[in-house]
Amino acid sequence: MFESTLLIRRQSAPGWLSGLCYFGGLASGLGLSALLLMFMGVSSTDLYQEFVVQTFMTLQGLDQTVTAAIPLILVGLGTSLSMRVKFWNIGIEGQLWCGAMAATWVSVNDVGPEPVRLWLMMFAAMAAGGAWIAIALAMKLAWSVTEVISTLLLGSIAFFWVQHMLFGAWRDTVTGFPTSPSFDSAERLDLLGWGQVHEGLWIALTAVAVCTWLTDVSRFGLQAKAVGANLRTARATGLPVLGTVAVFVLGSGALCGLAGGVIAAGTEYRLSQSIGAGYIFSGIVIAFLARANPLGVFAVAVALGGITTAGGVLKVFYGISEAAVLMVQGLVLLSVLAAQLFSEYRLTNRRPV
Amino acid sequence: MMSKIKTLLKSPGSHKAGGRPPALLLQGIDKTFDGKKVLSCAGFRLEWGEVHALVGENGAGKSTIMNVATGVYAPDCGKVIVDGRDVPLRNPADAIVAGIGMVHQHFRLVGRFTVAENVALALGGAGRRCSIGEAAHLIEEKSGELGFSLDPNARVERISVAEQQRAEIVKVLLLGAGIMILDEPTAVLTQGETRGLLSLLQRLALAGHAVVLITHKLQEVADHCDQITVMTQGRTVLDAAPMAVTTIAQVTQLAFGEVKEKPPVQMGHFGDELLRIEDLEVGDGAVTLEGLTLSLRAGEIFGIAGVGGNGQSELVACLNGLIRPLDGRIVLTGLDLTNASPAQRRKAGLRIIPADRFDSAMAGDLTLSENLTLTSLDSGRFGPWWRMSRKAMIRDAEKSLKDFNVLGGTPETKASLLSGGNAQKVLLARELSAGTRVVVAHSPVRGLDVRSVNAVLDLLAESAKEGAACLLISEDLDEILHMCSSVAVLNRGRLSAPLSGADLNPTRLGELMVGHV
């Protein structure tokens, strides 16, 4: 059957076609996920109840969705920024851990006066995330070390560092568990009075606005686009390549670090070994599905927050494993990426020779 | 094993045509790339025992039709008949089995392997495994038969281009190719090497092979080919005419249209020195530039002739600030730019038109207005750094596209969608803007259609007339002789003394290009 099928690269794809492919891929990914979950024993009405009604249409479900989405927005934005300059930041979790550690360090040592301590924690988180990715950036610039490897391995180092602190200096003396002592109330992001949703929402929305300005309004946006599209051309036309790459890559690390700080100060109120798990995958999924567009990141992160919330419910009430929730993310991403084939290539039949 | 390989590799019968069906017959071939028709009802007929020239402009469809014959592209419709049999060529492996071999412009050899290892690799890939020793034996035998020596144990990256080409030819023959297609094989060779190759091809034809020679060089065609096919715009306009009854003038007119004698552009009244290059030494890649010195005056178009690959790209990359020279100086009106950044060079008025515009001048995925804006972001014309004005970008781009007569695109079109000629005009619109003092143009009209060629050369001449100095680096002697009043030749990384006046003639340039000084 495929003997006579030809794949022909399109010179350009019209907007409606790439839109159709995108949403077609999204729909088939969600459909496949639904089939998978039904195969695992969740009935179709339950799926609808849990994924659509409970997570997005009830106030209580929606607050959980939004709470889950706050750090997702930040890591999604972080991944998008580095993607814009073709710097593959696979070490999102490492920067996130460093951010959470820096915020915890400020809290544990009571750095600065209490009224501004929370802000100090957030700035420390950003600085730590930026510094952690700066190591990978410096190694790439100085010795051409590929960032895929360096950021990934730096992620492991950061996690071991967290464990070192939690089993050592920062171990909670009250409970004896390997978690940091609980943050004081002045060191916590205030709840907004709607379930678990906290001030981190404003931080995330500000980040969306700043990234939109950076990529779509400021001069940096076009410079980054040129660097991402053709590095040699960017160099030869005299663009400030180094400065542009630094802004986007360090910004990426800072946002991921900020996500760590927001999780620690907004939902957990302490540093533990489990707060950063899974964000590496979510960050990449969100950035790709949003095509590195900040407003898209916001939408996709909220949707993914819903999946996470519903996944939590499924886990408790239907005995579905955590892995199944990750599978849903993976299926959706793969479907959307696979569907891009049809916007890039045209399928035709070879005419009989 | 050896004997089995040998019988498989036996060359086809050495009789000429006599009642045998044509070696290769392509009929009514259509090929469309996403709505763009590159071949329409094209045909090609190759007989055994002949050297057949395939001639045409860039983009005429020569490479495409030969890619159909070697299974790289599937035709939309049409017939491919090899030695009288209708063979389906679904992929290059099918073509090898059918006995069709191609020597590409970029050789398909592994640089770090020896010649014998490359041959063993290729034979193994075609399902005929043999040891490296056996391959070495086969190579010695075959090269002896062809009348040249080729060391089977030499590493490919260490031998000259001409030797690599021989290795490629031997490899293709050992794969069992009765039909051999060579894409611009003489472009990389010196004159002596070219003569050797062409007589080798004639000997192969005498031995019964069928040889296709894709070329631009009409003298080679006249001297060494038996038949000729000419293509223009995806059609076969002269189908397998015997060379004996065809004149070069006929071919030229069919392939390239009317060629008019153009008056020289340069008059010889130049201003002050603008660019001086002193003892430049660049060692990056295969060719090392050594002791390169030249001086450019305002209003002058200085030509650098020479076969590509003799240091041209290295010189341009070095002037562009992409690679650092090992030694020497680049000075623009007293300002030392030797170690300046690309932005500083640009500010000083140095503008580069590289040979591959999508490698280091434009980004195909950016729109035309974005590409046009890249070099003047900090001019303030497009708003402050914290707020780019898209409107101003588009307005500027619209004006540039209109002024430089760019067709087929709006400011919002992606640059990769433009034709070569129009993309080049966009680049010139950007580089020949205000503040240009020195323009370095490397093969600025290669691959363009006649009308774009004239437009681009006129733009360069005009910019010289307005007082810029222009360095024209090109392989095309006609272009250089038309544009420049003094010309030097770049050969193996060394620049000859400039020629001008009566010394400046094709014969003398040709001698310098092949190194007979």
TrEMBL record, chain A:
Topology within the bilayer: Multi-pass membrane protein
Transmembrane segments: 20-39, 87-106, 118-139, 151-170, 200-218, 239-265, 271-290, 297-318, 324-342
Superkingdom of origin: Bacteria
Main subcellular location: membrane
Record protein name field: ABC transporter permease
Keywords: Cell membrane, Membrane, Transmembrane, Transmembrane helix
Pfam families from the UniProt entry: BPD_transp_2
Cellular compartment(s): Cell membrane
From TrEMBL, chain B:
GO MF, one annotated term: ATP binding
Classification via Pfam families: ABC_tran (PF00005)
Keywords from the UniProt entry: ATP-binding, Nucleotide-binding
Positions of the ABC transporter domain: 24-258, 275-517
InterPro entries in UniProt: AAA+_ATPase, ABC_carbohydrate_import_ATPase, ABC_transporter-like_ATP-bd, ABC_transporter-like_CS, P-loop_NTPase
Domain of life: Bacteria
Region Disordered, annotated ranges: 1-21
Record family assignment: Belongs to the ABC transporter superfamily.
Name assigned to this protein: ATP-binding cassette domain-containing protein
